[in-house]
Description:
Layout lengths: L3 H18 L14 H9 L13 H16 L4 E4 L11 E2 L5 E2 L4 H12 L3 E5 L5 H10 L3 E3 L5 H12 L6 E5 L5 H4 L4 E4 L12
Amino acid sequence: SVPRQSHLARNRIDARQKFNTNRPTHFTQLQEISNAQAILLRHSGNAPPATAGTDSSPRGDAMSATADAATRASQVRIMLFDVDGVLTDGTLLYGEDGEKIKAFNTLDGHGLKMLAEVGILTGIITGRRSRALALRCADLGINILHQGVVDKAAVFASVLSECGLQADQAGYMGDDVVDLPVMVRCAFAAAVHAACRHILPLR
């Protein structure tokens, strides 16, 4: 069999080639997210009606959603992220002094740097506060950091205004119902595989 390291090296080269020729359409640790936007539109009641001759089967829906997601992703100029459960596995470790400890994946960090390399802004909108997150963002050069957020939609609008961008130029990745107000407003909505059923229903 081919050594795992060879697979990783080849995948990293393929990823770089895609980022150099196209706007990114997927991110580290995502599985089957191409139909996330279609699912969100369906939940919000804004999904377009099926037309005659359209393949309405699950396979047809997935193919259509994949093409739609790729189109939306190509318009993204800023990608925003939730943290717990998105850039971490959702686990919170408490030290004896009460300090929360988070574990971040280095591959996610590499993906965020790749976004920056192709000119896409990155930022964080999260409901929790963490010094560990502030340090991680500083390490990755992420300057758009909003912690302790209650109204994510309001902060999302504020970030867009400060950056001179529109909602159809923004993407957001979340995993819980508190992320929905942003996910239904942005051009490209993504969810991790373990997201709650309201965002990515169990199949």
